[in-house]
Amino acid sequence: MIDKRLDLASHLKEMEKEILKIVVGFDGFVDEIIHAVDKRIDSTNYSRIKTIEDFAARIARASGLSTNIELVPQQIKIGGNGPIMCNALSKHDTKIGYIGALGYPIIDNVFIDLDENVDMYSIGNPGHTDALEFHDGKLLLGKMSSLTDITYKRMIDLLGKDKVVELLSETNLLVSVNWSMIPNNTDLWRKIITNILPLLPVRKQKPLFFVDLADPEKRKNAEIIEALDLLKEFKSNFFVILGLNKKEAYDVAKVLNLFDFQSLNNMQVSLEDLNIALYDYLEIDSVVIHPVDSSCTVIDGVFYSEKGPYISIPKLTTGAGDNFNAGFALGMLYNLRPDQALLTGMSTSGFYVRNAKSPNFKELVDFIESWSNGEL
How far is CA 323 from CA 59, 110, 168, 204, 368, in A? Predict the structure, then answer.
């Protein structure tokens, strides 16, 4: 039996590609990647606090007292789910229009790193994230008051309705991510449904609409349900995909009361049952879930699951989920089978966490071959 990964790499090499048109929105952040110091060795060397559990214990010991934790910035980079996913998609044969919080009236210097195939339509100022990275995960400490400016009215005022219609009429993929951090995102979706979708042409092959809620735990249950219920309204014009990480999938299932609370809280419900239940409830075209070491999706009522190229000590984790989303969406745009799209997503994120950058097409194919050959 041919290895799926080797078969995928061969298919990608032989495939005829066309320029893909993509629209991405609506957030924008400046990310500062930070390590927390455990022990300072000398002026230039230190040992890190390795895990979130260790970091939490350090904080807990300060209860009723005080403590000082040294933070060492590692880099400042493009942040926000949208810009990171956009950056990953831009490494391929794409023409992208980015609508979001990139700096206004002047685009922030950090976003100048976006590829020249990205047209930037900025409608507000970015937030700022202090991303504390550990071996077992990350803590994202966000400052995001500027994102209240991301509204439908501001988008139309600055771009014009005709331009928005033009962009969405031609796109192969519409991406709307980081819903949880954009206070007016649900209203923006609702007004796109009411004012823009009726003006779009009906196309034989529907473009994709990819949505990532981005850790909605801090939003009220009623808000989450309201937003999720809107997604099916996009099906008249788009193939609708909801992407979730493992935590988000269980949290959303709790909000929707899909299983008993205790089973969900203890993650005793299998990912397959969880994925199918979410797909059935939401009545959209696909729900994709990506834990750290695997991924799964339901499309046309069929469940698919694949293992990923896990690494215990990654070089960079902030943005790994966005790179998975980019790779999965790319696979769907290439009309790959769902299991192949999962492998493409995990290969994109697998390359990213090892190299602290998103792969171009050749690097993606080479990574899939190396993974297949056991060389990672």
Answer: 31, 18, 23, 28, 15
- Structural contact between residues 277 and 270, judged by C-beta atoms closer than 8 angstroms: no
Which residues lie across from 289 on neighbouring strands? 244, 296
Summarize the confidence of residues 292-297 as an average pLDDT.
Answer: 96
Residue 240, SS3 per DSSP: strand
What domain range is 307 assigned to?
4-32+77-372
Q: Is residue 349 part of a domain?
A: yes
CATH number at 328 reads: 3.40.1190.20
**How far is it, in rounded angstroms, from Cα 354 to Cα 306?**
20
4 in Cβ contact with 78 (< 8 Å): no
Domain count, the chain: 1
Taking the alpha carbons of 247, 249, 254, 258 in that order, is the dihedral positive or negative?
Answer: negative
The DSSP symbol for 356 reads S
DSSP state of 16: P
65 found inside a domain: no
Chain-centre distance for alpha carbon 44: 34
Q: What are phi and psi of 34, to 5 degrees?
A: -135, 140
Consecutive H or E run containing 26? strand 20-26
Q: What would the pLDDT profile of 26-73 be if each residue is shown by its tens digit?
A: 999 998 999 999 999 999 999 999 999 999 999 999 999 999 999 999
pLDDT at 114: 85
Radius of gyration from C-alpha coordinates of the chain: 20
Reduce the DSSP state of residue 54 to 3 states and report it. Answer: helix
User: Does residue 41 lie in a domain region?
Assistant: no
257: its two tokens: 């009361």
Q: What is the pLDDT of residues 166-217, one digit of tens each?
A: 999 999 999 999 999 999 999 999 999 999 999 999 899 999 999 999 989 9
Half-sphere exposure of 53 (CA within 13 A, CB side): 2
pLDDT tens per residue, range 79-128: 899 999 999 999 999 999 999 999 999 999 999 878 789 999 999 999 99
Task: Note whether residue 67 is domain-resident.
Answer: no
